[in-house]
């Protein structure tokens, strides 16, 4: 190396990209690793790069004196931007072997590698540039002070660009992954909590606290922004529900809502999320240091995706409510034919949901318990007797025993209900309450041993939804007064179900129901038969 060095205080030692302002206290330095077995090379390089500043960040020099030692440093120390690497050290090709280990074993393709050799004949430049993933090749004899400086700054600039690209790729990938998870959330509070978790994880902000507020005048009138979720120092605001007017960030939230754009201040960032169907949301973040331009850009993209997810959530909620209202209305229509059933379908719905979740928790029929099944089966059970709207009053409301012909007419309600619900289900994409309603209407009078109707299906050939409702329907009917009978005591109802395990009823469902009733003793099950 040429040691005829100019003064280390020359003006060109300060890069043009550096500002005149002092270094930020929390700005991490650029890390440069010197790997060379000559102590003089380390000393001279440190002297040349002493006081160098690039992009308002100083340069931190690390030293290693062999290829193996250099590998250990790279494996332990993150974000090394540049390696100034000698070729001949403990072996004639130690530096070249280290290049391969950096790229292959450490899978580090961001760090810039500049080979410096005092023996060019040992590693000809043309062959090395082609065969090894290095970024520059220098003979030590040509490295003047200015050339060292130029090589280092150009390498740091290249490293910065690659890091920016990689962070953008990771950030965008995180955005896609995180917002796809948000589509799975159902309640607005869960959605807001998910948003805060994803924003904090997205860019590793290390936020001291964050909150998500919703402003929807159509729903909350003039009460102001509603705190949907909060973390850290803002957690207590969730209990207050509304952001108080004297809160330090109330004016900031108001400004963001008015201007409809993100605001990034020194100590706080406010993100605006627009959704036509559900008002506007604002996320308040307190990062440990001001956000970089890339972070702000990624957050803007993320906010756009959140807005789309938010609108989809609101639209899903509206469709869900409309579907549930339709199911309840149809069930009410069927129950209106028989005023003596009281709250039968409401109790059937609650108990069906409870038994399904008990079976799922116990690991029974694991392949059949999808999230959609668990969310739909309770409400869908209300449609089990929808077909009775076609049954004549003379048969439906007749007290006492039916004749064989009347029984045949009564049994037709199963196929009528199933057919009506299947036609309706075909108009709804995917699996819906109507899908399970059709299964239940058509199968809840089948018997586990194949002796039921209308198809004499047997065992697991009967849909699980129908097997659950078959037990629940009989349980509730026996426990409460009906036109044809007085209520039974709970003990007799339990004995009746136990006696018909594996014949009329699925034994797993009977066990789950009796276990639930015994352990939970829900008040809404209590009838006049107790």
Give your account of this protein's structure:
The protein is 49% helix and 12% strand. The longest helix is centred in the middle third of the chain and has 43 residues, at 293-335. The strands form two sheets. It has a six-stranded mixed β-sheet, with helices on both faces. It is built from 18 helices and eleven strands. It has helices at 39-49, 67-76, 94-104, 125-131, 145-182, 188-202, 217-220, 237-240, 250-259, 293-335, 344-361, 371-380, 393-396, 404-425, 433-443, 464-479, 490-499, 507-520, and strands at residues 30-35, 53-54, 57-64, 80-86, 112-117, 136-139, 209-215, 226-232, 263-264, 269-275, 279-285. It has 530 residues and is α/β, with parallel strands linked by helices.
The fold-level CATH name of the largest domain is Hypothetical protein af1432
In CATH, the homologous superfamily of the largest domain goes by the name Hypothetical protein af1432
Low-confidence stretches: 1-26
Determine the mean pLDDT.
Answer: 81
The helix/strand series, from N terminus to C terminus, equals: EHEEHEHEHEHHEHEHHEEEHHHHHHHHH
Strand percentage lies at 5-15%
The secondary-structure class comes to alpha/beta
Any chance you could write out the topology, listing elements then pairs?
Layout: E1 30-35, H1 39-49, E2 53-54, E3 57-64, H2 67-76, E4 80-86, H3 94-104, E5 112-117, H4 125-131, E6 136-139, H5 145-182, H6 188-202, E7 209-215, H7 217-220, E8 226-232, H8 237-240, H9 250-259, E9 263-264, E10 269-275, E11 279-285, H10 293-335, H11 344-361, H12 371-380, H13 393-396, H14 404-425, H15 433-443, H16 464-479, H17 490-499, H18 507-520
Parallel strand pairs: 1-3, 1-4, 4-5, 5-6
Antiparallel strand pairs: 2-3, 7-8, 7-11, 9-10, 10-11
């Amino acid at each position: 190396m040429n040691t005829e060095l100019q003064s280390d205080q020359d003006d060109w030692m300060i890069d043009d990209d550096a500002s005149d302002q002092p270094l930020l206290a929390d700005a991490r330095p650029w890390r440069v690793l010197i790997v060379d077995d000559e102590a003089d090379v380390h000393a001279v390089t440190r002297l040349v790069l002493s006081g160098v500043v690039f992009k308002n960040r100083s340069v931190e020099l690390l030293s290693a004196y062999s290829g193996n030692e250099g590998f250990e440093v790279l494996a332990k120390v993150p974000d090394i931007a540049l390696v100034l690497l000698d070729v001949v050290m403990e072996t004639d090709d130690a530096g070249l072997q280290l290049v391969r280990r950096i790229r292959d074993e450490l899978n580090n393709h961001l760090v810039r590698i500049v080979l410096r050799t005092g023996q060019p004949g040992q590693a000809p430049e043309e062959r090395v540039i082609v065969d090894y993933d290095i970024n520059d090749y220098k003979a030590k004899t040509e490295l003047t002070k200015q050339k060292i400086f130029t090589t280092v700054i150009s390498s740091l600039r290249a490293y910065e660009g690659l890091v920016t690209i990689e962070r953008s790729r990771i950030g965008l990938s995180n955005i896609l992954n995180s917002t796809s998870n948000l589509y799975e959330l159902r309640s607005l509070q869960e959605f807001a909590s998910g948003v805060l978790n994803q924003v904090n994880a997205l860019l590793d902000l290390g936020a001291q606290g964050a909150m998500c507020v919703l402003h929807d005048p159509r729903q909350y009138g003039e009460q102001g922004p509603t705190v949907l979720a909060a973390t850290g120092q803002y957690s207590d605001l969730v209990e207050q529900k509304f952001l108080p007017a004297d809160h330090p960030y109330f004016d900031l939230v108001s400004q963001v809502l008015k201007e409809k754009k993100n605001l990034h201040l020194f100590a706080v960032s406010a993100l605006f999320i627009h959704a036509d169907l559900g008002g506007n949301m604002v996320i308040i973040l307190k990062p440990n240091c001001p956000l970089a331009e890339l972070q702000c850009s990624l957050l803007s993209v993320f906010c756009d995706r959140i807005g789309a997810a938010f609108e989809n959530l609101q639209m899903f909620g509206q469709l869900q409510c409309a579907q549930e209202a339709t199911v309840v209305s149809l069930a009410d229509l069927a129950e209106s034919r028989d005023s003596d059933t009281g709250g039968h379908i409401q109790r059937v719905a609650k108990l069906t949901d409870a038994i399904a979740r008990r079976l799922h928790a116990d690991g029974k029929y694991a392949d059949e318990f999808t999230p959609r099944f668990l969310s739909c089966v309770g409400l869908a059970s209300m449609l089990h007797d929808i077909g009775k709207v076609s049954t004549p009053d003379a048969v439906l409301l007749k007290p006492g025993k039916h004749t064989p012909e009347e029984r045949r007419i009564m049994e037709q309600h199963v196929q009528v209900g199933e057919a009506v619900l299947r036609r309706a289900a075909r108009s709804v994409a995917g699996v819906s309450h109507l899908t399970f309603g059709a299964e239940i209407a058509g199968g809840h009078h089948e018997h586990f041993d194949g002796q039921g109707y209308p198809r004499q299906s047997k065992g697991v050939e009967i849909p699980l939804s129908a097997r659950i409702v078959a037990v629940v329907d009989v349980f509730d009917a026996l426990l409460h007064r009906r036109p044809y009978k007085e209520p039974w005591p709970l003990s007799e109802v339990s004995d009746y179900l136990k006696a018909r395990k594996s014949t009329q009823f699925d034994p797993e469902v009977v066990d789950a129901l009796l276990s639930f009733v015994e352990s939970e003793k829900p008040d809404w099950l209590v009838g006049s038969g107790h």
